[in-house]
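Late entry, zinc ion complex.
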Amino acid sequence: MEQTEEKMEIDDVIHITDYTFEIDLIDKMFPRAKFVIAIDIEELDDVVTERTNIVIKNTYDCYCYAGVNKIADYFYISGERITNKFIINKLIEQGLSLNCNHCFIEGFDKESDCQFGICTGS
Ligand SMILES: [Zn+2]
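Prediction complete; structure with ligand written out below:
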């Protein structure tokens, strides 16, 4: 009988941290998101701007798109109270999808009075 070299590595301790719990919770809050939300759960309700109309610009200028001339996407957000959560829901609605190594949204960067960029990490 042939012996298989298959090794099973079993972690004797499974660490369930607050962090993974938080990621799960965020996943459940935004089940249709085609990107990963890496914003602290307490910051989701933070008001990003006092304005009621903003533009979120998504540039594809990371190394994944090096040599590819991908035009920036613009997402128009309007609402009475523009929070991180509000923007995320609008981006999902408008079909934002991050497919490269930088699919983690860490926040929104103010670029001008009414334009914000997406702060991404991997
Ligand atoms: Zn990338």
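Residues 34-121 form one domain. Will revisit in the morning.
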